[in-house]
Write a structure and sequence with these properties.
alpha/beta, twelve-stranded parallel beta sheet, two-stranded parallel sheet, 13 helices
């Protein structure tokens, strides 16, 4: 699945050079020369998009050098899906030509590196680059096959970058958005990502969907990292696993994000108890919430949670999208009718289509599932650690990274 990223910075078409999705194979100088000649005709370029093509190290060097002509005007670069058919050695070699040039672009604000197979082979050059970034505000890097080891190094690099941005405040910009979805980050990356987020505490948008992060990893990520982001507006943790530990951590920290407008926890397996705990907490400050979009699909949410939603939905004055499909209640429930009536009374907002609901469980099945919830993390070899032990380890990690020469 291709990563969809479309951020409007008001860049004119006349200031955009795009070869998007042309499927060109840039292997040699003769392959890229006509396009470099075309690029050089521009007096001013603010955006370059070469996504959906494939480029060799040789051609990367040529293009990278050509970018320097527009050093002071380039704002947005899209390098999404540019390494199809390239081998494990070509990709880091290509990046080694691009990244030093990107660091020379003082106004570069958006960089999209999604849908490139970086894996572990490119992590050295990627980590070095991110560590030195002080101008990029929107860093988009989804579906890169990173895994937990490389994901942890990305987190460490974010930490170093945050430190460097503060040391060079006159020439830097704060990181505002970080996407790292579909990267198999798992629990092993969560501590490093936590300190990376904490150091970049002006982040407004985090997307970490489909990463195989389990409950204790989610808990660490929220408690030690995301909780520090008081400016957070968009949080997407779709298709990771919360169960009770993650749900409790989310509940304890949701009020740390007063500016949150979109929360995506679709397919996160909060389970019935976790849903009710989270929604009850949300109800406590719903009068002050700025939420516009709340995605809760496929979480085993049941009628008790619908009752909680009905209780605070009128207070969420800005909410216009509520997603509840894939949960455990009847489509023709009176509770659903009440939710629809509240939206009608408000004059805007709607539920998603409820076409894939589960059958509500019997009381006996619910009791069995409660027992399963209690054993869930034990069965998956996830024993909770004392908070103070995690804090000490993170402090030591921060100390060792702060001492690293950049």
């Amino acid at each position: 699945m291709t990563t969809i990223h479309d951020r409007d910075l008001g860049i004119l078409d006349s200031h955009t050079f795009s070869l998007k999705n042309k499927g060109i194979k840039f292997d040699t100088e003769s392959d890229i020369k006509p396009y470099i000649d075309e690029l050089n005709k521009f007096e001013k370029i603010e955006k370059i998009d070469i996504s959906g093509n494939t480029i060799s190290p040789e051609c990367s060097k040529i293009l990278a050098n050509s970018l320097l002509k527009f050093k002071d005007t380039l704002i947005d670069i899209n390098f999404q899906d540019i390494y199809t058919s390239r081998d494990r050695f070509e990709i880091p070699n290509s990046l080694n030509y691009f990244f030093p040039v990107l660091l020379k672009l003082p106004n570069l604000s958006v960089l999209n590196l999604s849908d490139n197979a970086f894996g572990q082979d490119s992590i050295e050059v990627l980590e070095n680059f991110i560590s030195k970034c002080i101008t990029i505000e929107y860093f988009i890097m989804s579906n890169n096959g990173l895994g937990p080891f490389s994901g942890a190094r990305i987190g460490n690099a974010l930490y170093k970058s945050g430190k460097l941005r503060k040391l060079n405040s006159n020439n830097s910009k704060s990181l505002k958005a970080f996407w790292c979805g579909r990267n198999r980050l798992e629990n092993g990356s969560c501590e490093s990502l936590s300190i990376g987020f904490k150091e970049n505490n002006e982040l407004k948008e985090i997307k970490l969907y489909q990463n195989g992060i389990r409950p204790l990893g989610i808990s660490k990520l929220i408690h030690f990292g995301l909780s520090s982001l008081s400016n957070l507006e968009i949080l997407d943790l779709q298709d990771n696993t919360f169960t009770l530990p993650g749900s409790i951590s989310l509940s304890q920290n949701i009020n740390n994000w007063p500016n949150l407008i979109e929360l995506n926890i679709n397919d996160c397996l909060l389970k019935s108890k976790g849903c009710s705990i989270f929604l009850q907490k949300l109800s406590e400050f719903s009068n002050n919430s700025k939420l516009q979009i709340l995605r809760l699909q496929y979480n085993e949410l049941e009628s008790d949670s619908l009752n909680i939603i009905i209780g605070f939905l009128k207070n969420l004055s800005d909410l216009n999208i509520l997603e509840l499909n894939g949960n455990r209640f009847e489509e023709d429930s009176d509770l659903i009718e009440k939710i629809n009536e509240i939206f009608q009374d408000k004059g805007f907002g709607e539920l998603d289509e409820l076409d894939d609901l589960e059958e509500p469980d019997s009381d006996e099945e619910e009791e069995e599932e409660d027992d399963d919830d209690e054993d869930d993390d034990v069965n998956n070899n996830e024993e909770p650690e004392p908070i103070d032990e995690i804090e000490k380890r993170l402090e030591q990690l921060e100390k060792s990274l702060a001492e690293t020469h950049i």
